[in-house]
Structure prediction request, 228 residues.
Amino acid sequence: MTIIITAFEQSPDGGKGLARDSRVRWALEEVGQSYEVRLVSFRAMKEPAHLSLHPFGQIPTYEEGDLALFETGAIVFHIADRHADLLPDEPNARARAITWMFAALNTVEPPILELATAKLLEGDKPWNRERLPLVEDRVRNRLGQLSARLGDADWLDGAFSAGDLMMVSVLLRLKSSGILGEFPNLAAYVARAEARPAYKRAFAAQQHVGADVSASAASPLQQGRGST
Ligand code: GTB
Prediction:
């Protein structure tokens, strides 16, 4: 059955792989599942056809026959649940890997998103200079905890899992900030994941789209609308 996902027609990151379709592409590449991509414009995302797939008018979405999903976490979990390789078979190990998926999205990503918002959308506010160090310290605090748990292990809990895929995807958003480099074991963890052939294929596929549009005009996100 053909799997179709949606992605930005013009990604505001110009192909850096930070939009969330990259997480879905990576999961599909890890399990060896082919897929097609439907590119959507910012305007089309808010029109009825796309809203019937995604109630919040965002990307990514996932279609597989009669099944239509939104929310990256749910999509990656679905892919991992239906294929071997991204979640362990042993029930307790599987539950722990799923826990790391939730931890990435619910505990580690929020301060990182706050930082992205502060930088991308609030840079011109008079209070931004004072607030930014506070937001950065919240990220540092969370990364310190994650770094302590990872220690010198390759992955968060045994073999690479959907938990690592999600955690690395979240940490990748910090690459340009310099904060990740303050935690050498986390920087090495991200680099290990980026070296995976599946990640490279997913990155190249989204970059191909980004390359065509990186010189385009400011997107609604860059103008302060929509979600980062
Ligand atoms: N909780 C949802 C999920 O995880 O699927 C959030 C989905 C989401 O935020 N989608 C964003 C979107 O569609 C794109 S990925 N935004 C348009 C809108 O809300 O109108 C977020 C994103 C956007 C841009 C960058 N970037 O430029 O670096 C990175 C990530």
Observations:
- The longest strand covers residues 3-8.
